[in-house]
Amino acid sequence: DIQMTQSPSSLSASVGDRVTITCQASQDISNYLNWYQQKPGKAPKLLIYDASNLETGVPSRFSGSGSGTDFTFTISSLQPEDIATYYCQQYDNLPPTFGQGTKLEIK
Amino acid sequence: EVQLVESGGGLVQPGGSLRLSCAASGFTFSSYWMHWVRQAPGKGLVWVSRINSDGSSTSYADSVKGRFTISRDNAKNTLYLQMNSLRAEDTAVYYCARDLAIFGVDVGYFDLWGRGTLVTVSS
Lengths: 107, 123
Known about the structure:
Chain A is built from no helices and 11 strands. By secondary structure, chain A is mainly β. The model of chain A has no long low-confidence stretch (mean pLDDT 97). In chain B, strand 7 (68-73) and strand 8 form a beta hairpin. In chain B, the strands form 2 sheets. In chain B, strands 2, 4, 5, 6, 9, 10, 11 and 12 form an 8-stranded mixed sheet that branches.
């Protein structure tokens, strides 16, 4: 199975800050990398697909980049409603695998 | 409204069985591959199984292979997960999620999720 390693595991930032999360795959996954947001008690929500494509309806402050094994997810200006856990997910090979998650909190 | 609604979760003893359902509405269910993803309490997301648009092809995580069976009824717009020989480590919220198929191949991202149904395996 492809291992997905996210960092950091948790992050505290202030409203308005630029926030960056990284995700590293254990082997080349091209651009088959997606990002999800999960708020407490809720289902995950797709934010970014194929590494850099913004899902319809998702605010433009969210962005993604990368290819191969190294990927980055960025929130350009943190908002209070962005408090959640964020997961990366690869779909280059079965089984699809998720990172361990990054819990984002407001400082 | 476009939505997925899971049901069928509950408390079951180790070794027991449950069948989960996922009712789809508001979209063309037969155009999508479907997946089950689970999340143990306080833990991350783990993929469980997938089925293609017409139900002819399925895949499973090693941890559930031989115990779980995914199926679908496109006439009823419903996805199922039959879970047998349940173990304590199967305790989780189970989500169904859709995955668009283009030219018969799934795109690999889950753009709609249900709210989940909790399965607790305990004596």
